[in-house]
Design a protein that fits this description.
It is a single chain. By secondary structure, the chain is mainly alpha-helical. About 80% of the residues lie in helices and about 0% in strands. It has nine helices and no strands. α1 crosses α3 and α5 runs antiparallel to α9. The chain is globular and about 55 Å long. It holds the Pfam family Sigma70_r2. This is RNA polymerase sigma factor, sigma-70 family.
């Protein structure tokens, strides 16, 4: 059994030894990410805990398929949660009263939905041609067109622009043709 299945099964059965192992293996990279991105130690702990609870809840109710490593999957969930927290704090007004449980539950549901949307997007990205995948991965990382052209051996950045446009349209078409798109879009 690979590590991913080991960790998923450990979360599903709430095996304390496995959960401790997840903390030991994965928390340091999440901590480093949060600290490097305007967070504190307590923020890293909160985000990590929320991600673990989110994944535990998902594995209890549905069959979660992880195509990367478990560590990578957990890190992505934490990263998405932390970015969400940063965006929320930009808009949030501070109150001196405790957050209602209802708000916390709604927040958790929203983060699970965001994770499902991200996984759906990643699944579709893996289905497009290798060339499109390479171009779009660089494009989504905001790499300049001229650098993409150089790295992927295109004649100039205009050719890359055209390829990005065509590949994005193909990806969008694949996403919209999947029945899950409407479900994930409207939730």
């Amino acid at each position: 059994m690979n590590n991913t299945n080991y960790f998923i099964n450990g979360l599903k059965t709430q095996n304390e030894k496995v959960i401790l192992e997840i903390y030991t293996n994965s928390y340091p990279s999440v901590r480093r990410f949060v600290l490097q991105n305007s967070g504190q130690e307590v923020d890293a702990q909160d985000v990590f805990q929320k991600a673990i609870i989110q994944i535990m809840a998902r594995v209890q109710v549905q069959n979660v398929v992880i195509k990367s490593t478990f560590d990578g999957y957990l890190f992505t969930a934490c990263k998405n949660l932390w970015r969400r927290e940063l965006n929320k704090s930009k808009r949030m007004v501070t109150f001196d009263q405790p957050i209602e449980l209802k708000v916390e539950a709604n927040d958790m549901a929203q983060s699970v939905l965001e994770q499902e949307r991200w996984e759906f997007f990643q699944e579709k990205l893996e289905l497009i041609s290798g060339n499109c995948k390479e171009i779009l991965k660089r494009f989504f990382k905001k790499m300049p067109y001229k650098d993409i052209a150089k790295e992927l051996d295109y004649s100039d950045d205009n050719v890359v622009r055209q390829r990005v446009f065509k590949c994005k349209n193909k990806l969008t078409q694949m996403i919209k043709e999947d029945n899950r798109y409407n479900q994930l879009k409207t939730l």
